[in-house]
Amino acid sequence: MRSSKTNARVYLPENPLHSAAPTAETALKEGATLLRGCTPTASLDAALLLGHIIGVDRAWLLSRGQVQLTSAQYEHFRRLIAQRREGKPIAYITSLAGFYKRMFLVNENVLVPRPETEHLVEAAIEYLRERVRAGAQAVRVLEIGAGSGAVACSIAAEVPQAHVEGTDVSAHAVSIARRNAERLGVSERCRFRQADIAGDEPAGPFDAVVANLPYIPTADLPEKPDPAAFEPRIALDGGPDGMAVYARLLGECAWCLRGAGVLLMEAAPATMPRLRALTAAALPAASVEVRRDYGGLERFLYVTP
User: Fold this and answer.
1) Where are the alpha helices (DSSP H) in the chain?
2) Model's pTM, two decimal places?
3) DSSP SS3 for 49
4) 274 touches 242 (CB < 8 A)
5) What is the pLDDT of residue 22?
């Protein structure tokens, strides 16, 4: 049974210690104390939030702890701490997320890019560079479920010969992805459109198809204050067994790939066996390899049809 407490707003306690705005060091200690028990990275989160407000990095804050905050900065900091106490992800509070050496715009309409997904990007980049070394003048990539565009833009930025097309069912996500492509200077080679899976536009074949689609079973969707519960449900809910969207992708992907193309699909360790079985059934002649993340957990499939 779900507790009604998960929907209650969280308010910061009154702070009688400061009649005026404190120093950065004092504010950081206060923020970390307020976040303790709400997040395992209380001190880091407080530093990221204060740095975001001031416009400096964590190292600057730690080396200049005696700098005096303005009243406006201090009140802003406490408001952001209150949001973090509710479980809201840092990336949504600051509207920025780091991924594969770059910063991306994000909001509640897109998933926060995960470090684990960098393995998917690395595998795609390595494969595409091999195609270029083998003589390809250009390589084509399709990302299905592009979200913020972090994966597609990273591939385009790292492989100058790559032309990347990204699709997403959400118009809001497509707008964010386009803004990220513009910010990173890859919009000429990295284009996004609204579509369910690949859509009806004949755009293939592709050298690589990349997907990080919803894979959480509906019954296992997170609830607040879990930070993942702030993310768009449409980007998380994979249906009863977590594989509903991937099943549709696998029914459509054959036409997308060139003769020696690669299909990369991310999922959670718990759902990887189901994704592997679906892939083997849809592409019985394909080579299906499970690859692991930084923690040694099964994270994505590397499929060569």
Assistant:
1) 24-35, 42-54, 58-63, 71-85, 90-94, 118-133, 150-158, 171-183, 244-252, 272-282
2) 0.89
3) helix
4) yes
5) 93
